[in-house]
Amino acid sequence: MPGVERASRAQPKNRSSQQLCKTISFVAMDSRFAIDKKILGLVFLCASVTPTFGAPPSPLQERADHFLSLANAGYQALYRVNSEAQWNAVTDVTPEHDAAAEATGKAYAAFNGNPAIIKEARDLLTHRSELNELTVRELNQLLLNAAEGPMTNPDLVSKRVEAETKQASILNSFEFKLNGKPITANQIDDKLRTSTNLNERKAIWEASKQSGPALKPNLVKLRDLRNGVAREMQYPDYFSLEVASYGMTTEEMLKMLDDWMATLRPLYLQLHTWAKYKLAEKYHQPVPKKIPAHWINNRWSQEWDGLVEAADIDKYFKGRNADWIIKTAEQFYTGLGFSSLPQSFWEKSDLYPLPPDSKRKKNTHASCWHVDLENDIRSLQSIEPNGQWFFTAHHELGHGYYFKAYTRPEVPYLLRLGAAPGFHEGVGELIALASSQVPYLQSRGILPNDFKADKTAFLLDDALARSIPFIYFSAGVMPHWEADIYAHNLPPNEWNARWWKYVGEMQGVEPPSPRGEEFCDAATKTHINDNPAYYYNYAFATVFKFQLHDYIARKILHQPPQSCNYADNKEVGAWLNDILKKGGTEDWRKVLKEATGEDISTRAMADYFKPLMAWLEEQNKGRQIGWD
Ligand SMILES: [Zn+2]
């Protein structure tokens, strides 16, 4: 099963279309805010105006239609050129490809941040009541795209480019040291997964926090520059700008996230208690109130994996090959009634690991790309025959089929994206969840028909490693801390104290020893540096996926959500397609409500894990629950 957190950070506003799905260090494009007017001019020359039919539009609507047909054409042209160059840069890492990607990144940013576009979109939006809804959505999207580098203030943008570049360079070149010897981030993670020596674990955990002080000074500058760019676009701060993609204010977003944490809290307290007893036994320690951070495998305690041995099914994938895995994933979708992937997907994708002696180097993070916002859909993977890649292949094609579904004339290029930023990941996650259901694995011949699942173990592993603790990091610590620094102007000499206050209160986790302001532990998390005010999208995707899954299992399949099989059900496909085909043309709240009859909530998520609750209460009988 793929991890929950998946970042797309090459270009913030490409999020819907280059879905980078598998965590950690992807080198940020540093050039995305600069400008190249020559290329922009060429694109405008190539653009043509699409005639409209029906009742004659008002002069204002006509002006907007004309403007948007140019804007859409220019956007798609630059998007395609840029994606192609970025694709080359990640599938064949060379200095030449990096340079080409940088140049196209500049052209793309120049188009998006062009002052003429910003001005016209703003002008038109002052008469929004006279424009149709789709037009208003396109104009808003243009402004959101522009917000990463508004060339109405070139000086600010160039300062930000410089600071972003510097931060990426510190982040990517930072050398962690353990006992004076260099250690990579991957080695840190491996050791935290395997070491049972608490002294060693503490030293490794502390080593993983070394990058914070190096990153903090420039992060302080970036906070102001990012806020400056947001203000240039008439938002109060950078956090508010980012949550505007949901049509929400900072306070509304934080309230939604707090509600999720409140409703899941009884389950979290039970899991937390079970986990700390299990860990105390493992390390032969007295049971603590809060869990020491170095007891958990993950550097930020965001996911708690490796605690449930009985849920490992990798051995059943032995003897399968990588091609079978991706073809089986495609068959999942064709079985639901979706058409086959285009032939170009198979010709242009890069799906398998390179041989060890290969001269070519590629990025190993899984991703799916909508290269031209038309039918050129590709995926970058390194598929091996195991459970994780099986689920990841299903997840990635979720993006691919989302792209396919909204690639239709009714959806303008500017709105070929998810209904909200968390929708794309949520759909990928939904299919990964569906592909991990025991009846589905049996129907594909992976698990034997007489396989007796330890249902509690599967559910417990799912809760710990992918779902429940993750919410308290993704909806709790990360967005609250980032809202504090961007929207609430938290002074830098309180940054670390605030971070650990949230970790303690929300996650019930504490550092192995006091962490003063000489550290900046938040900055050790990649996203704080290169994908700011974005992390709640992973919480959204998690909550959203359980909601869709619940509807499909109960209302369409009439099977229990914890043990169901979507395979070959055309009704499921048709229902899903109704959501996907809309792209960004409607408000996400409306899309969700129409599909499920519900507003966004953790109701379905709590129901999914309900069978676990009784079991946990039994296990935790007589134990002190919580950490207060
Ligand atoms: Zn993804």
Class by alpha and beta content? mainly alpha
> Which word captures the global form?
globular
Radius of gyration: 24 Å
| Lateral strand order in the biggest sheet | 1-5-6
Main beta sheet, described? 3 strands, antiparallel
The helix fraction, in percent, is 55-70%
Percentage of residues in strands: under 5%
Catalogue the ligands. Answer: zinc ion
Number of helices: 24
Gap from first CA to last CA: 33 Å
Residue windows where pLDDT falls under 50 for at least 5 positions: 1-18, 22-52
Summarize the structure.
The protein contains 24 helices and 7 strands.
Report on the architecture of this protein.
By secondary structure, the chain is mainly α. The protein has helices spanning 37-46, 59-91, 95-112, 115-125, 133-146, 154-173, 185-194, 198-207, 211-232, 238-243, 250-282, 322-335, 343-348, 387-406, 421-435, 438-443, 455-486, 495-507, 526-530, 536-557, 570-580, 588-596, 603-608, 610-619; strands at residues 18-20, 176-178, 181-183, 291-292, 367-370, 377-380, 509-510. The strands form three sheets. The chain has a three-stranded antiparallel beta sheet with strand order 1-5-6, sandwiched between helices. It has a two-stranded antiparallel ribbon with strand order 2-3. Helix 1 crosses helix 2 (59-91). It starts with 17 loop residues before the first strand and ends in a 9-residue tail after the last helix. Bound molecules: zinc ion.
